């Protein structure tokens, strides 16, 4: 499917995690040991916020259909841009064509969204779900992926007011539509959304066997564990990462997010875990 990461914290050069770590996102685009596909070479995208955390500020985005390991612009951009909150995504297309409008992250106003996984039976239910997108969001759909439709359905269901509740309503609605078309397990994946201040990430699938998801350990804890590990010094004390798979091999550096869980990274850098559509 795909690989992604979300960073929040003190301003950080994007290349520090997208390019420079042992298992960076670009490295995962070529070799993803924990992914459904080993290679994720069907385009990539970045979304980042400027130095202000003003909630009215919209993020910048950059999309390319080049494989991440092959695109010189990605290296130039990632080394030049520092951001206190950014999303990065490498794509393995599950059917929709390889085009810029199908690359994550997707943007609406100040919001960013990305997904790893798939909606089973999407072609059968696509028209029905598209017609449920509110008119004020409908024209924002520019591509053909299930992921972009999930985002705009979530906006319709109140994402900008209640992110966790809106994602729950959206995925339950997709499951309902799937059952009507004979699909018993429609939803698979991990999802991330941000308004530029808070990050919400979700690990959920209808079968409760979701794609992998991890978040970083507190940086002060890691420095105490590994006082001689030089690379930790580039990160500020509020640095937080949510990733499809760990970026290094340090034991304890990344913590697996439980199945059917929502993870929240607050503006002050705290992690919060909440059950999300957990089985009864």
From TrEMBL:
<dbReference type="InterPro" id="IPR026869">
    <property type="entry name" value="EgtC-like"/>
</dbReference>
<dbReference type="InterPro" id="IPR017932">
    <property type="entry name" value="GATase_2_dom"/>
</dbReference>
<dbReference type="InterPro" id="IPR029055">
    <property type="entry name" value="Ntn_hydrolases_N"/>
</dbReference>
<protein>
    <submittedName>
        <fullName>Class II glutamine amidotransferase</fullName>
    </submittedName>
</protein>
<dbReference type="InterPro" id="IPR052373">
    <property type="entry name" value="Gamma-glu_amide_hydrolase"/>
</dbReference>
<dbReference type="Pfam" id="PF13230">
    <property type="entry name" value="GATase_4"/>
</dbReference>
<keyword id="KW-0315">Glutamine amidotransferase</keyword>
<feature type="domain" description="Glutamine amidotransferase type-2">
    <location>
        <begin position="2"/>
        <end position="268"/>
    </location>
</feature>
